[in-house]
Specification:
Blueprint: H1 13-27, H2 39-46, H3 50-62, E1 66-69, E2 73-76, H4 82-105, H5 110-136
Antiparallel strand pairs: 1-2
């Protein structure tokens, strides 16, 4: 799995990693049970402090996205807990609210915003299907 960080984005590096892992899980590029890169090698590859990667993994674990198995590493996990589902829903609502506010400031009308969301959902689904086909080959 390839990660990229932008030190000039203004967004903390650990949150960039969290977003990228969540996106990989959503698109199917990272499957449930699949191992995430170890903290030290990933930190060296990205040229960041190990604590930054550890913080990203801790955040993902608190969200129920990954689980840490002592001595084995961190793995993407499947979520079936209704509590976790409610937490995920709350996080998503916060992100949607931010996107709506941003669309308002960019003067994007509601119908155009919704159409854009639909196109992005379709693109994500296409990416997920492509990842499934790639894994079958």
């Amino acid at each position: 799995m390839l990660f990229q960080v932008n030190f000039k984005s203004g967004k903390p590096v650990y949150l960039q990693l969290v977003d990228q892992i969540q996106a990989a899980a959503a698109s199917g590029a990272l499957a449930p049970g699949e191992a995430l890169p170890s903290i030290r090698p990933l930190a060296e590859e990205l040229r960041v402090n190990r604590n930054t990667v550890a913080k990203a993994y801790t955040e993902l674990e608190s969200q129920g996205v990954i689980e840490t198995l002592p001595g084995k590493g961190c793995f993407l996990k499947e979520n079936h807990s209704p509590l976790r589902k409610e937490i995920r829903r709350k996080l998503l609502i916060e992100e949607i609210d931010q996107a709506i506010v941003k669309a308002h400031h960019l003067q994007v009308p509601g119908p155009e915003f919704l159409k854009l969301v639909e196109h992005r959902m379709e693109a994500l689904e296409d990416k997920r299907r492509a990842n499934e086909i790639e894994k079958e080959e």
